[in-house]
Write a structure and sequence with these properties.
Jelly Rolls, 5 domains, about 725 residues, five-stranded antiparallel β-sheet, 5 helices, mainly beta, single chain
């Protein structure tokens, strides 16, 4: 990012110094006049609401500007000044004032430097204009001063002020009647304040002096030198008050002048006072807009320096620009995590910054051995998920969470987000405002490698009451959630979706319906006889097979007794402290060779059962109180290649896999199953680590060459 524009005072002051006539509506143009060799460079007509001294200076930036001429027309008097090199004029503007600058045709505006001490339509509330003649000399100590001092305080705390327009009295406009006239002006301030003042706009013959006055002495201070930007920047003197004295040589006549001055008080750096090196327990300030630059001052007397803390979020990609005019400020940058941990950023402000998963704030620390103004600009690019700051959290919120960390999704608007390589889940919030609730569904590009779930939440506990795979669901009044999960291991995944509001839920009044079932009695009798007739024929054809069914029942009962013994054996093995993995693996393989339905009946109703055209998944808990479960996967007629299963926690603490039987590769919360053959059953024993309140599953792989995922629409209560 390029260097931002200078602070408001610099922009305002420079507008006076460089071609300021453009700000008053005048448009420089080159048009033929009476002679082909003459062009109009500036032509402007302006109105001044009250009399005000004006000084204009025009410098030729070349060796010479032939034909250069300034014409000023006021209600009281007309002025014409011609000089090929330099033009200066002081006058009192009141009412309509016309300004015209002409020169020979070989000249242009780029050849001129134009300065003007005041502008049209100015905010007079921000200036003090000499009325009664200001004091000629600095009053001696002990003398009462009736003249109003200039309070040029810049009141813009860094945490509350986002308007960088000037506030307070910063413009001082005056004039010297002749060479014997002098003006002395007191500038309010305290030791530790910083004074900033561009070089005044005034004739060359006019000088400015800086004085210190206190109860015992008045002292002419050593002349301050403007810096390379044409600015006076210095510490307010100690043990007294600052005075400015404007004078000129005795032989000179009327001279107008104007200067802009700002006092930066340490007590106004923030709403709580001076910025210190220790931020303390305060909340971070708001993340600045792209147009906003954070600014402050440090000096050699402030040995500890300044610190500011700016709110941030997870996985923000930030462009950081830190600078000062003198290049004397040392910048340090730190990441603040949710638990208060502070970690420094390599390179400080010289590199782009990517925040950590648990980052909640950025802290900048500034020190300098000289007086310097520091500037910090921050930009997040690309923007965070759903236009919010940073990455959307990867879990549902709980009662103790700060709800503002979850991006809020609006209905029927395109939501853009992404997942980096090390994340798999994004969770968004949305609010249903209709008293009767709304019918909702997700509109998304199905080719994107993500899946969507809409969670209807309990408004008191935030537990999941209902869920859908992105399809139509009724959501009552309140705040609910959308869970987006990545399929596969893509390093960077971009996705977008819309949450569609299909309208308010309308309950149909039962009184609107009329029972007319009696009209179809005859049809029901006919249809019953007609449909039952084939069954009679089938019974007759299979009469002999039924007699053989008794033997089959005996075989099935034998199989169930075998499965019962196998279940009891497997449960006893898992209860032992030292388990025999070979025996456990053998038992699990025997389960896989057994009839699927018989296993399901023997083990009882599973905690979770997910059945689709391609796969059926069941999960049982083994040994209540221990974090062990049995997972059964039955494959239909199409094989699953590159199959993998994830175990995750939709809410609460995270979950990971500690052990798998039979042996499979696993990492964190994912098990790699490789190929699952058609018409086979696979049983796995999983040991779970962590303290999740809920557990969900996600089976993914390639089926017939196409990626496919099986995601149960509810989770297991594991608490």
């Amino acid at each position: 990012m390029g260097k931002p524009a200078r602070r408001a005072v610099s922009r305002t002051a420079n507008a006076i110094f460089v071609l300021f006539i453009f700000l008053i509506g005048g448009v420089s143009h080159a048009t033929a006049q009476d002679s082909e060799n003459t062009v109009t460079l500036i032509e402007n007509s302006s109105d001044f609401d009250q009399p005000i001294p004006i000084f204009i200076k025009i410098w030729c930036l070349k060796s010479s500007c032939p034909g250069l001429e300034l014409k000023v027309t006021t209600l009281d008097e007309n002025y014409t000044v011609s000089d090929p090199n330099r033009i200066e004029i002081s006058f009192v503007a009141s009412g309509q004032v016309d300004i015209l600058v002409i020169a020979n045709s070989e000249n242009s505006m780029e050849d001129l430097l134009f300065e003007m001490s005041q502008w049209v339509n100015a905010n007079f509330s921000s200036m003090i204009i000499e009325g009664d003649d200001w004091l000629d000399n600095i009053p001696s100590p002990g003398i009462t001063v009736d003249q109003e001092p200039v309070d040029s305080t810049w009141d813009c705390p860094i945490d509350t002020c986002h308007n960088i327009q000037p506030t307070g009295v910063h413009w001082v406009i005056g004039s010297l009647i002749d060479g014997s006239d002098k003006d002395s002006i007191e500038i309010l301030g305290d030791a530790g304040d910083i004074i900033e003042m561009p070089v005044p706009v005034m004739p060359e013959s006019v000088e400015i002096e800086f004085w210190l006055r206190n109860d015992s002495t008045k002292t002419l201070l050593e002349a301050f030198e403007p810096d390379e930007d044409g600015q006076f920047r210095f510490d307010y003197p100690e043990d007294g008050h600052l005075w400015l004295r404007i004078k000129q040589l005795p032989e000179n006549g009327f001279a107008a002048y104007g200067f802009y001055i700002i006092r930066h008080s340490p007590d106004l750096e923030s709403s709580w006072g001076e910025l210190a090196a220790d931020w303390g327990e305060r909340e971070p300030i708001l993340f600045p807009s792209e147009a906003q630059t954070l600014r402050g001052w440090v000096s050699f007397s402030d040995t500890e320096g300044d610190a500011i803390r700016v709110e941030s979020a997870s996985r923000m990609e930030l462009s950081v620009n830190c600078w000062d005019r003198s290049e004397k400020v040392n910048f340090e940058v730190f990441l603040i995590s949710s638990d208060g941990t502070v970690s420094d950023v390599d390179g400080g402000c010289t590199n782009a910054i990517t925040t950590n998963v648990d980052t909640v704030a950025l802290e900048f620390r500034m020190t300098s051995e000289t007086l310097a103004e520091w500037n910090i600009a921050l930009t997040e690019y690309p923007k965070g998920d759903a236009g919010a700051m940073g990455d959307a959290p990867d879990r549902l919120w709980m009662i103790s969470d700060d709800f503002s960390n979850w991006p809020n999704v609006s209905f029927n608007q395109t939501i853009e987000a992404r997942m980096s390589g090390d994340e798999f889940v994004d969770v968004f919030a949305f609010e249903v405002t209709s008293a009767n609730g709304s019918k909702l569904h997700i509109d998304a590009d199905l080719t994107q490698p993500v899946t969507y779930q809409i969670f209807v939440l309990n408004q008191e506990t935030w537990s999941i009451q209902n869920a859908s795979d992105g399809g139509l669901i009724d959501a009552p009044y309140g705040i609910h959630a959308i869970r987006v999960e990545k399929i596969g291991d893509a390093s960077l995944t971009y996705y977008d979706f819309k949450l569609i509001d299909d309208g308010e839920i309308v309950e149909i009044d039962p009184g609107l319906f009329t029972d007319q079932s009696n009209l179809f009695t005859d049809y029901y009798i006919f249809a019953g006889i007609f449909l039952l007739a084939p069954a009679v024929l089938v019974i007759f054809w299979n009469r002999n097979r039924w007699r053989d069914g008794i033997n089959q029942i005996e075989i099935e009962q034998h199989e169930l007794r075998r499965l019962r013994r196998l279940r009891e054996r497997l449960t006893a093995l898992l209860a032992e402290e030292d388990t025999n993995e070979q025996v456990i693996d053998s038992a699990l393989h025997q389960l896989g060779d057994s009839p699927w339905q018989a296993v399901v009946e023997d083990w009882g109703g599973p905690l979770l059962r997910h059945n689709t055209e391609q796969v059926e998944i069941c999960a049982w808990r083994i040994n209540e109180g221990k974090h062990t479960m049995l997972i059964g996967i039955r494959i239909a007629e199409s094989p699953w290649e590159l199959a993998a299963m994830r175990v995750y926690a939709p809410e609460g603490a995270s979950v990971s896999i500690a052990e798998v039987s039979p042996k499979h590769l696993f990492n964190g919360d994912e098990i790699f199953l490789d190929t699952l053959s058609p018409l086979t059953s696979t049983f796995l024993r999983l040991s779970i680590s962590g303290e999740p309140s809920n557990i969900g599953f996600h089976l993914s792989g390639l089926v017939n060459g196409e990626p496919l995922a099986a995601v149960p629409n509810r989770a297991i209560d594991w608490s």
